[in-house]
Design goal:
Length: 130
């Protein structure tokens, strides 16, 4: 068995105790800080998801009023229409849809027979204006 003689230590046992309490206090403070940051991050995620949902609903209503249909997939709105017989109307409506949804940016657009699928295919991506 190993025995330690505390009288030979470079600092006193009281100083070791003070150092231990200091490290314990700092550890507890860092743990509390980590918990607070985790809660704040989750709160921001929830608020962001709520803003996306509300904005998508508002945008979908405007798109529907233009005679187009949209499908939401997370932070993406997809607008498709296969009827190319009303080409100029689709072009005008899709341009208006992009303009009427201020928090959404146009990420892809294709209109015509060469598109997959043929017709109008438009994607709006959520990105709040700063």
């Amino acid at each position: 068995m190993i025995k330690f003689d505390l009288s030979e230590l470079p600092i006193s046992p009281r100083q070791y105790q003070t150092i231990g309490i200091t490290f314990l206090s700092v550890g507890i403070l860092l743990l509390i800080l980590g918990i607070v940051l985790a809660v704040m991050t989750e709160s921001r995620r929830t608020k962001h998801a709520s803003r996306v949902k509300v904005s998508a609903q508002e945008c979908s209503i405007k798109i529907k009023a233009l005679g187009l249909n949209s499908i939401q997939d997370g932070e993406t709105l997809r607008i498709m229409d296969k009827d190319l017989t009303r080409g100029m109307e689709l072009l005008a409506s899709s341009s208006q849809a992009a303009a009427l949804c201020p928090n959404w940016t146009l990420s892809s657009y294709c209109m015509g027979q060469a598109c997959t699928p043929p017709g109008l295919s438009m994607t709006l991506q959520f990105g709040e204006i700063k």
